[in-house]
């Protein structure tokens, strides 16, 4: 209980560090949800700063800091986006459930999304074999026959059911998430804005009851101390979905004498 209380305080207090000083959020700044018209401006700024401009979407858990009197003047932003399924990690023991129990089939999924699709397909095949609707032959196979219409409707129903079952499994499978696009305009830094953005985006992830509480991020090694206030630690095993970004990022950071690291925290 004491550890949970301490963790709660840690997430809700803005702690000064080498990146930002200890300050409350300025009164002239407010934080709001990201909007579609924010995406292009954020991506353009990220590209100029040699940061990953891809995957920015208001449909993610995207928060932006803006001027109180002008919500279009963006001061900073942060988002959490899905990067895959926790049950399919190369190191499943770290997560809530190494294998995924299929909610609708009662089976166990394998190491990939394809395995889940195969499990659902197996179930649909079993239902097809048990379907009392006769398969049309001869004249009954003509498109205008009652038998053909019945078989066609049964096939359409199975396709719709397959799509529904697969979506149920995906919606109930723990995911891995990435805290990304954390940025504050230089003239607004050291005022606690970045800390508040990260704190709120993490809290909203929990409040939205997202399945999967492992949050990853890529950052410069010199900024690691700042992220530790949110429970992040260095992670040696980079998720496959982040491997390309990690490789590309390292190629750039080495040119400026910096080191890119993968970090991870688990929210409660």
Automatic annotation (TrEMBL):
Keywords: Signal. Transmembrane segments: none annotated. InterPro entries: Acyl_CoA_acyltransferase (IPR016181), GNAT_dom (IPR000182). Coiled coil: none annotated. Residues 1-21 form the signal peptide. The keyword Glycoprotein does not apply. Residues 112-251 form the N-acetyltransferase domain. This is N-acetyltransferase domain-containing protein.
